[in-house]
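Students often ask why we bother encoding 3D structure as a string. The short answer is that it lets us treat folding as translation between two languages. Here is a chain of 243 residues written in the first language.
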Amino acid sequence: MSHVYQELNPGPFERKASMMITTNLSVLINDVLKGAATLLNQNWAITAAVNVFIIFFTVFLYLNTSTTSDQVTIRSASNNAFSGGNTTTLKEIVFHPNYGGLWKDDLALIKLATPANFSEGVKSISIAKSLPKQGTNAVVVGWGPKSYFSTTDGILREAVVPVMNYETCKQKYYPIFLFTDTSFCTAKDNVGPCPHDFGDPLVYKNKVIGIFSGSFDCGSTTYPAVYADVTQYNKWINKVIKS
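And here it is in the second language, the structure alphabet:
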């Protein structure tokens, strides 16, 4: 996360995450962090489709032919993306059927090779049924760097950011429209998600309302952070994870 999260010690960032450690997953290929995912039940997690797109093409096109999904690591129950907790690999990837490579419908569901053990500091989180009103504070959680051009230390952090509705946010990106009314934003100076934060959950009242898709900057009110509005995808999510 960019200027997003501060440490528990005084500094320009927000605080280390605590509660969300049990629901957040890190997604790595050959120990390189690609993004975040959020556990919905023991078998399924939700993430940004761009993370899965990167995984798919890295694993099956850009690496040697012996590369398998075993080189994809999904880590849970740790506040460090690179160590600790529990690890597993991928069993299945399901893109949203309308995802086309941009921020529209930027969602995917990933099935874990090994079901999560809820007795080991791991739990699931639910999807909200609707978004809160504009200006409402929500919490974004992830492993990204503290600035756009820095590298991540892999520590899970969180930040409080205000919700911005689609109509307001699309004017910020005019005339470039990479998303539709199935997205919304958050915007706060020097606070917001960054590279390696793709897939970060935005949480309000202990339920997920958004999954981070991207932005043209980090922690910017000029170019707000764009999220998939997961409250509009409950039917698709439930159909996949209950099948």
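Translate back mentally: Residues 49-62 form the longest helix (14 residues). Keep this in mind for the problem set.
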